[in-house]
Amino acid sequence: MNQYNLGGHSGCQIFLIEDDDGKVYVRKISKDIEYNNRLKIQSEKQGSFSGEPIKAPKVLGQGYTKDGLYYFDMEYVRGVT
Q: For FRET with 79, which of 6, 15, 20, 27 sits at 20 to 30 Å CA-CA?
């Protein structure tokens, strides 16, 4: 597995991950325990978007790290910074 830090603006960790099967996705990890609920709400909201006019990367999965930080995985969409 390879992972690349993509940075971010909310204090959360964001990684581009390529697993051993060649699947590529983005993982966003909460910045701290107190931020878990806010990030979970974000993932639920993002997961509810479908079709026009709003497009968002699909949420692929979610969970908690061994340190108790919430994370969610989403589709990688190649774009321009």
A: 20
